[in-house]
């Protein structure tokens, strides 16, 4: 790669040159992180060995603490290494749709919408609400987030699928346990390097009035835009702006992104990789269950990964679930095992 960068003709093709420079930067960053980890590992092991040899518990404890910190860093780098797909580095759109079940499912969709916004904030990503359609009584029928940040799509892509909630319903006067479903769909933002052609004659464009949470952000004119791509059946909507022109431009970008995600999915299926579930929102199709009563458990049905603290998960603690799913998608098996330090 260095030989190509040193080629005086490199910048004759600016787009290709920028791609090569980005690749080199990413490789240098990963190699630098690995070398730093190896150096700090040697230092920590030396501290432990020195403490054991001299009977110095303080030095030994310092070395063990350093090893534990390195374990956490190694796990983080392990996950970063899995984010090498074609669009993993891109920003992401994340849609949430309520399933059958009326108010219960709409409330569950609202909870998921908040969960992913909180997760993105924890990752220091920028979050924008693109569309919200309120439920008839509470919650959301649908909502779309734009998550901006390096590897936003790579992190979030395995969340696509049906999510199931079991709890005592706050809407049931008899305090009975209810099961609700909502679906999540994640697809990458298409940047200028990716050329997706859409024939406008294949699309139906509808305008409508926004129906968000209320207040100054709800439009009083029909400025929201919905685009239906007839050949694929894909539907996108945007009501983030008061300007119909801006909403239309965003909706076209979302449609291009959805079509690109569909192409990535086709390639992944051809390679026999595990594709995200995009099926009916109901029993038998869920990828993850969140149980709040009669016990507390979140379980990913694809990987078997669990958490006994659903409140933390619903507040955005999703990295462990994402790491397990990302590892499963890599051909040839699961994550590299790193032994805990006793």
From TrEMBL:
Q: Which UniProt keywords apply?
A: Cytoplasm, Methylation, Protein biosynthesis
Q: Specify where it is mainly localized.
A: cytoplasm
The PTM entry states:
Methylated by PrmC. Methylation increases the termination efficiency of RF2.
- Asked if Protein biosynthesis is a keyword of the record, the answer is yes
Task: Give the location in the cell.
Answer: Cytoplasm
This protein's record includes keyword Protein biosynthesis: yes
Q: Which GO terms describe its molecular function?
A: translation release factor activity, codon specific
Q: Which Pfam families match?
A: PCRF, RF-1
Q: What does this protein do?
A: Peptide chain release factor 2 directs the termination of translation in response to the peptide chain termination codons UGA and UAA.
From the Swiss-Prot or TrEMBL record, give the protein name: Peptide chain release factor 2
Look up and give the organism this protein is from. Methylocystis bryophila
């Amino acid at each position: 790669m260095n030989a190509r960068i040193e080629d005086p003709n490199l910048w004759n093709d600016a787009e290709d040159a920028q791609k090569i420079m980005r690749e080199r930067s990413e490789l240098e960053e990963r190699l630098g992180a690995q070398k730093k980890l190896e150096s700090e590992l040697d230092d920590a092991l030396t501290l432990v060995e020195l403490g054991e040899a001299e009977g110095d518990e303080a030095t030994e404890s310092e070395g063990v603490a350093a090893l534990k910190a390195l374990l956490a860093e190694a796990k983080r780098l392990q996950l970063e290494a899995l984010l090498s797909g074609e669009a993993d580095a891109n920003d992401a759109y994340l849609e949430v749709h309520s399933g059958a079940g009326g108010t219960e499912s709409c409330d569950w969709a609202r909870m998921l919408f908040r969960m992913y916004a909180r997760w993105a904030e924890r990752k220091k990503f920028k979050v924008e609400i693109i569309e919200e359609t309120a439920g008839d009584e509470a919650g959301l029928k649908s909502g779309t987030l734009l998550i901006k940040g390096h590897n936003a799509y790579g992190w979030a892509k395995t969340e696509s699928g049906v999510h199931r909630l079991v709890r005592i319903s706050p809407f049931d006067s008899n305090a009975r346990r209810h099961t609700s479903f909502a679906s999540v769909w994640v697809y990458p933002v298409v940047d200028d390097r990716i050329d997706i052609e859409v024939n406008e004659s294949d699309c139906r464009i509808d305008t409508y009035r926004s129906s968000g949470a209320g207040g100054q952000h709800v439009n009083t004119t029909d400025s929201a835009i919905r685009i239906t791509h007839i050949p694929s059946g894909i539907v996108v909507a945007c009501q983030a702006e008061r300007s119909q022109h801006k909403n239309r431009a965003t909706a076209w970008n979302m449609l291009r992104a959805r079509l690109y995600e569909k192409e990535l999915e086709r390639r992944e299926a051809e390679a026999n990789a595990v594709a995200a579930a995009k099926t009916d929102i109901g029993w038998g199709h869920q990828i993850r269950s969140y149980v709040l009563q009669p016990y507390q458990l979140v379980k990913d049905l694809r990987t078997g990964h669990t958490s006994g603290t659903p409140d933390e998960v619903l507040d955005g603690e999703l990295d462990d679930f994402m790491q397990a799913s990302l590892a499963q998608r890599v051909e040839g098996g699961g994550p590299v095992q790193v032994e805990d330090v006793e």
